[in-house]
Amino acid sequence: MSGLAGTIEDWAIRLMELLGAPGAGLAIAAENLFPPLPCELILPLAGFAAANGTMTIASAIVWTTAGSVIGALVLYVVGARVGLQPLRAAAGRLPLLSVVDVDRANDWFARRGPRAVLLGRMIPIVRSLVSIPAGVQRMHPLTFVLYTAAGSLAWNSAFILAGYHLGARWATVTAYAGAYARLSLALIAIGVLSLLGRRLWAARRTRAADTGAHHDH
After folding, report:
1. With left for phi above 0 and alpha for psi between -120 and 50, is residue 83 left, alpha or beta?
2. Could you tell me the CA-to-CA distances from 126 to 21, 23, 80, 132, 181 in Å, in that order?
3. Do 60 and 174 form a contact (C-beta atoms < 8 A)?
4. How many whole angstroms from its chain centre is CA 118?
């Protein structure tokens, strides 16, 4: 690998060589706090390291899951500290957003928060960011930790086991995961653009109706 991916790979390898499984956990904790760091690279690499005897497969899974939970908890605390009111205030000043949008999103998360956390742990970028609304919503910390741990355990295990069994071909996992990440981000972008498009269309129709009413008078 070259470029940024190669730099991250070298950094992760040094961490694992120096600290073993805790190094893999530390790398994943950092990935949760800085989503551009690709867990899809770090996790298969941890599996490859386990295949080479640097750590056991069980310790790799346990430590990376612990790192996921720790990183997620930091973002949960950020969300809890920020709270709902600053988000409502910001939405009131932004075009195409309103306080009602924030309240609806908050109500939705109140109903489906645990499920959103569980499934969100398996979607690139979202897997980190989902911790913030959980904090804003003040989801019970134990519930948050349990669902975060469950989702992270499933995600991490899949990638680590793939890297373990592929051995020197562990980078194959990263290639397929990269395609999945790009698809996920494309779908998210399409959803956001669709929402913005509907808002713009509704705003334009409202202005046209107001203009027509003004001319009638």
Report:
1. left
2. 25, 23, 18, 10, 10
3. no
4. 11
Distance (Å, whole) CA 17 – CA 102: 45
Query: How would you classify residue 127: left for phi > 0, otherwise alpha for psi between -120 and 50, otherwise beta?
Result: alpha
Q: How far apart are CA 205 and CA 20, in angstroms?
A: 60
In the numeric block, which tokens belong to residue 215? 């001319």
Closest by CA position to 40, among listed 177, 137, 156, 149: 177
Cα 75 versus chain centre, distance: 11
The phi and psi torsions of 130 (rounded to 5 degrees) equal -65, -20
67, 12 contact by CB (below 8 A): no
Give me 36's structure tokens: 């551009």
Give the confidence band of 5 by pLDDT, cuts at 50, 70, 90: low
Token readout for 38 is 């690709």
Helix (H, G, I), strand (E, B) or coil at 118: helix
Task: Return the pLDDT at 210.
Answer: 59
**What average pLDDT does this structure show over 159-178?**
79
Structure-token pair, residue 59 = 């310790």
- Which residues lie closer than 8 Å to 155 by C-beta, 6 or more apart? 39, 43, 68, 121, 122, 127
Q: What is the DSSP letter of 2?
A: -
The whole-chain average pLDDT of the chain stands at 80
Q: Which two tokens stand for residue 81?
A: 């500290």
Q: Residue 127 corresponds to which amino acid?
A: R
